[in-house]
Amino acid sequence: MKIMEYILEVLICSGLFLVLYRWLLAGKVGYRICRAYIVGTMLLAAVIPVLDVPLYPPVQSSPTPGPAAIINDSHLFGDKGTVYNFGESTATDITDSAAATEKGQTDKDIRTAILNIITAVYCLTATASIVLILFNIAKIRRLRRSARLTPMEGWTLAENEKVQTPFSFLRTVYMGFNYAPSERLMIITHEASHVRHRHSYERLALSVLRSLLWFNPFLWMAEKDLREVQEWEADRD
Q: What is the rounded CA–CA span in Å between residue 187 and residue 184?
């Protein structure tokens, strides 16, 4: 499949899925259904264009006439027996053919160079985004190693003075120390909800997909919608 065709089909699929979500599902169904729809449809939007599913039967081309049919065709000869010459070319025809061939090769080289530039930009951007995700994960792991860990029921509380804003990642809740007892309980309950529903796994999957398809604005919008649904679900808990 051609690259431009794939990009166009990804944009169409993800755009339609997102419109359907905001029109039919957002605020009307449960949070779990919304989360599953956002993650699942964005993955489908990346896979559907790759599937080679024929929508129409193949067109059967008519058979090419053989040399005998061409020679015996009456329109090749005049009414008075005029015979046309085949296989003979003038110097002008040869020059024009060479010029056309050279121009075609130049256009092909230009298209190849443009495609190589676009491919390099895409690969560099995707690689940089993936590296940034890995860097943030490593940073969180270092933060966990220097934190005070408290095992909870099915998850771990990591308290570190370097944490300015509480957050959760995988099976760990990260927060600082300077909180009143009631505020601390509220934060822990909220972040534990994120852990229990495995919200960070969904965010991580969508972040990797967004890094690979960074050109898709609908994917960035879907990622924002997913964060909102997860926050509403944690607030409800």
A: 5
Decide the pairing of beta strands 172-175 and 156-159: parallel
Cα-Cα-Cα-Cα torsion 19, 22, 25, 29, nearest 10 degrees, comes to: 160
**How many whole angstroms separate alpha carbon 222 and alpha carbon 163?**
27
Count of CB atoms situated within 10 Å of the CB of 223 = 18
> Hey, which residues does 131 pair with through a beta bridge?
none
Structural tokens at position 209: 């997909």
H or E stretch at 186: helix 181-196
d(C-alpha 214, C-alpha 46), whole Å: 12
- Taking the whole predicted model, whether its pTM rises above 0.70 is answered as yes
- What number is the average pLDDT over the span 33-59? 82
Q: Which two tokens stand for residue 8?
A: 């166009």
Whether the Cβ atoms of residue 202 and residue 230 lie closer than 8 Å to each other? yes
Q: Which residues contact 45 (CB under 8 A, 6 or more apart)?
A: 10, 13, 14, 17, 216, 218, 219
Q: Which range among 26-30, 74-78, 210-214 shows the weakest confidence by mean pLDDT?
A: 74-78
C-beta neighbour count of 120 within 10 angstroms: 10
Measured CA to CA, the distance from residue 213 to residue 7 in angstroms comes to 9
